[in-house]
Input
Amino acid sequence: MLHTSALVVEGECSFGVNVAVVTADHLLVVTRRADNVRSGPGLWGSSVNEGLSRLIDSAGRNAPDLHDVARRGMREELSLEPPEYTLTMPAFVLGMDRTTR
Output
């Protein structure tokens, strides 16, 4: 699994993709963060939370494809490949109010 981290400085923001996985029997998959991670240890969250990486997700100067980022997160976080799920993007949210620690 690829782990990336970024220091968030006041006035800057990070950008990522959250995926809500709903099973065939209509159950929501949630995940719990490990206790030894720097950001949000032990917290429960979305099925997949994947941060964008300029090196991995951008081809040259092109913008990243958010569906590709979500697919990467599904593979890295849940070991699922595209034939095993259907991916849709029902919402796009931009949150800019972030407190630094």
Summary: Helices lie at 54-57, 66-78. Strands lie at 16-19, 21-22, 28-29, 31-32, 44-45, 48-51. The radius of gyration is 14 Å.
